[in-house]
Amino acid sequence: MKSYLYIFTACIILFSSFTVKEKNEIIIRKEEAAINRDSLVVFAKKYLGTPYLYASNNPKKGFDCSGFVSYVFSNFGMTLPRSSGEYKNLGKPLKPEDFKVGDILVFYGYKDKTIIGHLGIICEANGMRSKFIHASSGKAQQVTITSLDTEHYTNRFYKCIDVISK
To answer: pTM of this prediction?
Structure first.
């Protein structure tokens, strides 16, 4: 009778490991799936009008620029830096003609052109005339869409990076 109990227990353990493996494979497949750039922007646009809140990535309270970018990409299984300064050496800069929806725009601070001070996600790609969605601490004080070709952002532009393509 004990041997049947051991066999039964072994079968349960073996079956459990297959179930876990199958679940892990689904997760792996999801992480390996390419992010749909248009879906990323549609998701980001859900937060238009969300208030600006320094050091926050909480959609119920508000976002700062890096909190917004990291929150949007985390919904698609990507972990990105939480601080805008960490984007300075991240990725290879793209030429304006290579900008795509879902790429990240990186800007210098408005007072200091030695530090990174702002981020946004391209929602309409058109080189240096692209539009981007971002959590603005300026006049808007909310998640908004702005054109890159405004003097304020053109003067602060540092680079555009693609974090989606591998």
So the answer is: 0.80
